Amino acid sequence: MTTPIESAANEQAHLEEQAQPGESRRGRLTERWDHLERWQQWGFLALGGALVFFLPVINPPILSTEPANDFPIACANMAIYALAALGLNVVVGQAGLLDLGYIGFFAVGAYVTALWTSDDSTFVHIPYLWTLPLAAIVTIAFGIALGVPTLRLRGDYLAIVTLGFGEIIRLLATIVPALQGQTGFKNVGSPPGTASDGTKLFAINNGTPWYWLTVALIVLLMLLLGNLERSRVGRAWIATREDEDAAEVMGVPTFKFKVWAFAIGAALGGLSGALFGGLNGFVNNQKFDVQTSMLFLAAVVLGGAGNKFGAILGGAFVAYLPLRFTGIAEYKYLIFGVTLVTLMIFRPQGLLGARNHLLAYAGRARDWLAQRERHPQHHQSSQKEGRT
Amino acid sequence: MTADDSWVSLNWSALGDGFLGATFDGLTFGSIYALVALGYTLVYGVLNLMNFAHSEVFITGAYAVVFTLSALGFGASVPNLAWYEIVLNLVLACAAAMAAAAGVAFLIERIAYRPLRKRGASRLAFLITAIGMSFVVQNIYFVWRSANAEPSVTMFENRAIFDIGGTLIYLDQVIIVTAALIMMIGVDQLIQRTRLGRGIRAVAQDPDTATLMGVNRERIIVLTFVIGGVLAGAAALFYVMKVPSGVVYNGGFILGIKAFTAAVLGGIGNVRGALLGGLLLGVIGNYGQILLGNGQWTDVVAFVVLILVLMVRPEGILGSNLAKVRA
Description:
The complex is a heterodimer. By secondary structure, chain A is mainly alpha-helical. Chain A is built from 17 helices and no strands. The two termini of chain A are about 20 Å apart. By secondary structure, chain B is mostly helical. Chain B is built from 12 helices and 2 strands; from the N terminus they run αααααββααααααα. In chain B, helix 3 (about 55-70) packs antiparallel against helix 4. The termini of chain B are far apart. At the A-B interface, helix 1, helix 8, helix 13 and helix 15 of A face helix 4, helix 5, helix 10 and helix 12 of B.
């Protein structure tokens, strides 16, 4: 990925040699994919899509989280985490803002749903589906409220402030009586609809409809985000991420677009939180700690920051791993940590590297030049991936 | 909501009455934060890494303290020993904690960060590895000791030794603040005056140039982790002194977050900033707790103050560069 820098800074050339085969294998795969006809690509995508869509129904034996955890519910959790990671990817991956308090938005979303649908709440009750846009709107307000004063900060200072924000939200959920602390809210609402046998479709013990709802939302939001990323906004984000000062000098109002990123990320976080509240049917202050927030960040980086598909993969993975190993409950987070460290050591750029849409045209031009010059090693897959 | 307005009420008279006591207690906790914060700050200085696994280095020290003291015969009741015996035992426990914490810090560096450095990984990858390591170490303790807190040990009979206008100053407060201050000054002098310190500052300022000038960067990094571990070990002794029931597998995490906040508040990568940030955080948190009348408020107040300070001074109170700090 960063061959020139690595080779300059790195005295251990042999390590790089080891890294090479993996890179080129991946390069070959990308190349083969590029040489497929358009309809073949779509065919594979459709097949993959169908597999993803019917995942809870198929319940593949080795992948399955049963008997410890119901697989469709695990799938729904994975989808919800994937949605959250998708949102955080806008903030961290696209705009390059390190956000360790993303759980705060997730919590706000869950509490919005709980406050407006739960039997334990004295608020006006509204249908569950209305709380989804409401959660998004409320979290956007929170995102702007957090972003406007703090987005002057850079890097790790921003990280710690956002972490503080997440903690404040959690502590307020404990302190403020209206939010009921650990007692929490039971009977959080769910979407309407009954199955053919008259039972409720979106029941707590049935993850599949929740999964489908979340996946549908993810697909929709990915289309929207994809458009956004290819627009002026997305280019401004990437410019800000790569070099904030340079972007500012070149006339990009970086602050404005950082707030944008924060608001959009927050909205997706709130949405996933609302789904999380609905799926569990119960919301209290326990699930919204710093560690979960770090898991979201881990999901994004693990998948490959800046890559939507990567974020979704990472989110699903982060949710999946502890659920898969609940059978050996004591060790599940140990396994999780070891996996995290190992993956980062062997694939520091994440499972799927970043796709850089900004460089798409430049990258294609460079590829073309490289082909003419027959200069094999110099041009890495990251540029080829820039193809849209 | 009107019925619930009472959840936030400002009790100024309580703050007025308890002001001095809160200050002393805040300084005590602040010293502990500051010692742990130094570990964050030093590593941040040389590696630009938020080492989230440092909280686990700290809790390692706390476990070492409890185990050592239990082995030496300390228990829940006040030990019936002569003062020099107690001091000797405490020094022993402190040494064990320092050794254990430094050892774990060293191992974490070796296992998790060195391979990443060799591969020239991005900062985000380092951050995630740090989080992963934190999970790993924490859950090793979880698997080993389960979720229960270790039985508390009483180290000595805590008594008031000064009386300032009705506010008592206790023995443990004096010990902790004095010892922590001495250690902080020691580290500051180490950074400012010794050859090692010059190396650390050089690596913090410009790793490549420092390497060209003959500084062994790897050695500096390892030593930085070890120094951070030693300080965390000392902090662990004081922590067990103040919070005997706090030694749980995840007990380091929250304290780590607060210590990290302290480091950022003072200006991360800045040794004196860590001291200032730690003490400030301890004191302000205590004031907030008394003013608002609930222990939960400590952290909220601390984080709000952090946000407010960073809005005015985006790089912390003393600025962030380890290399720029002058004597």
